[in-house]
Amino acid sequence: MNSLRLFVLTAACAVLATPVASVAAPAESSSACMTPHPTLVERRVSEEAARGLPRLIAFVNRTQPIYQVRLDDAVAMIDAERERRNQCITASARAISD
């Protein structure tokens, strides 16, 4: 009788957890568009990059001893943010077209 109870309990938990799992794990389009909370360094780098490449280079050279971010790291941060935005736009366009 214990194995039957365990089986029924497992099946009931699986049935009850399915709606919760679908809410907890959003669709691909919304997960790509969720805005991550940028760190202070990422926020500062993106602000300086918006002002232009010379300002970004000067910022990185000036703050490298403090933030320990090299120019290639700053460019990688900016590229990652742009890639995340492009994925969000693509996923949103797919969701609209479906």
Key terms for this structure?
single chain; 98 residues; mainly alpha; 5 helices
What do these coordinates show?
This protein is mainly α. It has one domain. It is 84% helix and 0% strand. The protein contains five helices and no strands. The chain has helices at residues 2-24, 28-33, 40-50, 53-67, 71-97. It is elongated, with a radius of gyration of 23 Å. Residues 20-26 have low confidence and may be disordered.
List the helices and strands and how they pair.
Layout: H1 2-24, H2 28-33, H3 40-50, H4 53-67, H5 71-97
Looking at the structure, what is the overall shape? Answer: elongated
Number of domains: 1
Q: Let me know the largest β-sheet.
A: none
Q: Which ranges are low-confidence, i.e. pLDDT below 50, for 5 or more consecutive residues?
A: 20-26
Distance between the termini: 48 Å
Q: Give the strand tally.
A: 0
Strand content: under 5%
